[in-house]
Write a structure and sequence with these properties.
2 copies of one chain form a homodimer. Chain A is mainly alpha-helical. Chain A is built from 22 helices and 5 strands. The first copy, chain A, starts with a helix and ends with a strand. The interface between A and B is large, with 69 and 69 residues. Strand 5 of chain A pairs antiparallel with strand 5 of chain B.
Chain lengths: 612, 612
């Protein structure tokens, strides 16, 4: 039953030799690695506009300037990551680059930041995907959180099945998205030029704040827009799955991705600016642009649906990255070793399940609001960007390969830029949630180190030397204690077991009623066993207290190496689970308490099955 | 820690010989046994008015006629219960009377009805007590349910401590209540006669229903008012604690109680009628009368507070009755035997706890509304009245003592009257909740019988005859299986234990990684133990599936009588509880699954404590 439900949901178990790595050509690779980066155009422009709107509608023009600055940052990042791809053909995630070049602690900081990134990629993408859907179908607006959780459930189950096999299908939505967004930008600009689009002039100066448009507000808008850059590192992590020449193909794919991202981001920001679109609670900026350009036609719905689809794919990519990173960390003993085990379907099931739970938790906590999650997202992403770049700088400095000067300069510019941006984000977005990540990352590093220490100490404690096996051939000297409630069928096997394993057996009985104790004594004598019956008085009528007291005394009487105390508990197994309520559960109580107080006590349950 | 928290809340454990029964004189007995009955005047008049108001304000005059009919019923009940007191000087609860004279099933019906009564006494009295309080302090109105739950918590804790000892204090509130209600009635009538109270004429005919005031509506009002009679049986249950001559003193107390109840009930109903008081959602009828008579003075608050106090005492009486009845039923094997055990403080703790939980549950479900609970209450009370009276009739018929004709006639009239009233309540209040009790009581009887059957079958299954002990002196033939993950300190004790208890030991290892398996094989051989190591392949990487399969095969290989399979599980005990997450919990999984599939499997845990 358990097995069959699992099989229906997740498919049949797979043999280890079934694992195969298919190599991807550039077109498929672009589809797979770009969904995270490209999908961020669905929310990045809106994030800038929200910040500017806060200062006042007359300042919305600044959106283009901010977008252009972000494109500049994109160029620096791409140049830097080209170099990472060449130097780390086996995949250069920030954890590996930082650990190798900067040391363990920076590596762990990068690991913590990356785990936050993956988690927020899921939560942000799912929230934004649901928003794209509810913009088109406003009647779904009230079910946003439920829809988000449903999407997480389906993606989690899909990944537990192992979804890589269907990657060919996953190549379609990104191209549909790219095509429809480019068509939107083209049509929008043409219709604007032809004067076919009526733009309503923003006559009123709506001001939500009396702060002037100072540098701080511009930097805030800039850091909000930096979420457009999330996901650009994906290609550098995935170099090994490219077709040969791997690094070359990866760099070409990276450049295409960056080009598309830049055009789409600047195009959408331009249209939002030209059409005087203001962010709204119920409809995304992208949906407003599409509706203004195409009307509520087929093309409009195509844009919304393909936006949702690419955002779900972006969430899906984190389901590959998070469990892989968790398994790397677990192999290095920084996370519980359960993250290294491949499940039935050859995926890191534990990592997938943990990611699903945490992402669902975030969706519920933040009510599925993309723009509340974005400040958290941006911090993590730029922490890993800057550590990765700094690691590259150190590497060039140490190794000094051919043309190292130029390469080092590129990464140095990358490192300084990303560190600066990180500072800007941390300061301007601190009160909006960035503080949470700034607290969480150090806590995660401490946790990684504590776990590592535990495993190291475990090894030390368990490693056996010759001395530990000196006595292994000698039988144990055991005192066997067996609590009995009366002479009946339920105790016969337990008594046989006890007298089989030791000559030193004592039966224990609690005297709560003199009559039944007298009867028990007589019945016990009649059995003519070589086992003394000790009757324990219970002044306060407790069944467990006198037993626990007696057993504790016996344990403390001798050092454990000289005599082991073994508790044999005769138990009933009732025919129906609810019958359990009709019996004293004293055995469970005693076992739990003694295990807590004397972990080394050997406890054996000899159970008698009731037939009805 | 556990013990000390318990001691602070409940007091020190008591020795069994500390139990003492203090005999009560009539004055103390009246205070203790009357609180349930007398407190019902706090809601019974209001219950009648609510029904009449539903037909229309012009019919409120009927309230006096209904109240007089109820007083007639009270007289019949008192005459009947005088006889029960004389015949059952050891306490004649409906369960005992019905079981002795009518048979097991009627006895169990009475028991079910009584348990419902006790439960509803708590819920109704607490709700009404809170309403008396919130009438005086309307700002508490929104916290009604919380106040009710708090009261239940305090009463439950008090009873777990054993509150009988403070019964002297409990004698005060009933007399304060009696005094203040009698003062209210006297003052009210005097002021009415002197024309000092301005009664507002009800000019408008407010009609909430277009039903005519037919017989059905009058009967409905009558059955609502019958809740005034709840608790009159209390004295007959408590005869043993009276001073000698017990029966005589009990009868005198019963008569006093009935007299006071009759005067208070008719007096309050008369004042409500004369002052034209209408039931309201936020203020009780009694509070309205008191406010009209005294104004919002000290006397008004005295009435409200003493009403709350006597209602809490009424709830408290059920905390003595319910656990005692549950222990009687448990002794007769109709309820789990845990209800018979006296706790630390010489009270039936389990019954007290169950009652507290159920009463709290009802308060939450019904939102603390007294008048939603009353229809349930009335049905249970009259089921036990009629079974008790019928039992007495049968008893007189069988035994035929001196003057049996008269006595039988009195109880026959009682039985016929209470059965008729029960029918009236069941029909007129069916849709208002009576149906629930009508369904629940048979379900409880079925449950009692099922429990009884289980204990009978248990006895049959466990009773051992000579045949069962034939083999008890022979050692068991045991195959000991011990799963090992590697050769380290954590398994040495488990191996010694296994080879101590049997010569037939097999170590089991799961092959998930050829390298570590090869190392384990070499390490194992180096130990030079006389224990074969069986390596189990795990094609789908599960740790538990191959183990479970192998153990199952070994269990099924021989009948259990020829060879027992003993599973010895080496386990770690981590130094911190959260370290448990860093280890595979395979042992727990295997144990749980095998216990479920093979309950008779002997499982032993030999644990190794990690120091850090």
């Amino acid at each position: 039953m358990k097995r069959s439900l699992k099989t229906v949901l997740l498919g049949k178990p797979l043999l280890a030799q079934d694992m195969h790595h298919e190599c991807l050509d550039k077109r498929r690779a672009l589809a797979i690695f770009s969904s995270d980066a490209l999908s961020s155009v669905a929310y990045a422009t809106e994030a800038i506009l929200i910040e500017l709107l806060f200062v006042g509608t007359i300042f919305m023009d600044w959106s283009m300037i901010v977008a252009i600055a972000i494109i500049g940052l994109l160029v620096i990042l791409i140049l830097s990551y080209r170099q990472t791809i060449h130097l780390y053909p086996n995949g250069g995630g920030a954890y590996i680059v930082a650990k190798e070049n900067l040391g363990e602690t920076p590596g762990l900081v990068a690991a913590g930041a990356l785990m936050m990134d993956y988690l927020l990629t899921v939560s942000v993408s799912i929230s934004a995907g649901v928003e794209a859907l509810t913009s088109a179908f406003p009647q779904l607006h009230s079910s946003s959180v439920s829809l988000g959780l449903l999407a997480i459930l389906l993606i989690t189950l899909g990944n537990l099945r192992g979804m890589q096999e269907s990657a060919k299908i996953f190549a379609i939505p990104p191209y549909v998205f790219i095509f429809s967004i480019l068509a939107l930008i083209g049509t929008g600009i043409y219709k604007l030029a032809a004067g076919e689009l009526v733009t309503q002039p923003i006559s009123e100066v709506v001001r939500f704040s009396y702060e002037p448009l100072g540098l701080f507000m511009i930097l805030k808008a800039f850091s909000a827009g930096c979420t457009a850059l999330t996901g650009v590192e994906a290609v550098s992590n995935g170099v090994p799955v490219f077709k040969n020449p791997k690094s070359h193909n990866a760099v070409v794919t990276l450049s295409w991705m960056a080009g598309l991202l830049g055009i789409m981001f600047i195009g959408i920001t331009f249209l939002a600016h030209a059409l005087h679109i203001l962010p709204s609670d119920t409809e995304t900026v992208l949906s407003q642009i599409a509706r203004a350009t195409f009307g509520t036609t087929f093309f409009y719905y195509l844009i919304q649906v393909s936006t949702t689809a690419i955002l779900l794919l972006a969430a899906n990519t984190a389901y590959a990255g998070f469990p892989r990173l968790a398994s790397l960390l677990a192999l290095d003993r920084f996370l519980p070793r359960q993250f290294t085990s491949l499940g039935d379907r050859l995926v890191f099931s534990n990592g997938i399940i943990v990611l699903g739970f945490l992402a669902g938790f975030l969706i519920v906590i933040f009510g599925g609001d993309t723009h509340l999650l974005l400040p958290l997202y941006a911090v993590g992403v730029f922490v890993s960007f800057s550590l990765s770049q700094s690691g590259m700088v150190v590497r060039y400095w140490r190794k000094r390969p051919k043309h190292w000067g130029l390469s080092l300069s590129i990464n140095l510019i990358g490192a300084i830029t990303t560190l600066t941006v990180l500072g800007v984000i941390a300061v301007t977005r601190f009160v909006h949630g960035a503080w949470l990540v700034i607290i969480l990352i150090p806590l995660m590093v401490i946790m990684f180190k504590k776990i590592n220490l535990h495993y190291k100490l475990l090894g030390l404690q368990l490693t056996a030397n010759a001395k530990d096996f000196v006595h292994i051939h000698e039988p144990l000297n055991m005192l066997v204690l067996i609590p009995v409630s009366g002479v009946h069928k339920g105790i016969t096997r337990a008594i046989r077991f006890a007298s089989t394993i030791s000559k030193d057996v004592v039966a224990l009985s609690i005297n709560t009623n003199p009559e039944s104790t007298a009867r028990l004594k007589a019945d016990w004598a009649a059995l003519e066993l070589n086992i003394p019956l000790v009757v324990l008085d219970s002044p306060f009528r407790s069944l467990s207290d006198p037993l626990i007291k007696y057993i504790s005394e016996k344990i403390d009487e001798f050092p454990r190496k000289e005599r082991e105390v073994v508790l044999v508990i005769p138990e009933f197994v009732t025919a129906r689970w609810w019958h359990g309520f009709l019996h004293n559960q004293t055995a469970v109580l005693i076992r739990t308490y003694l295990w807590w107080k004397y972990p080394e006590l050997v406890v054996t349950n000899v159970r008698h099955r009731l037939r009805f």
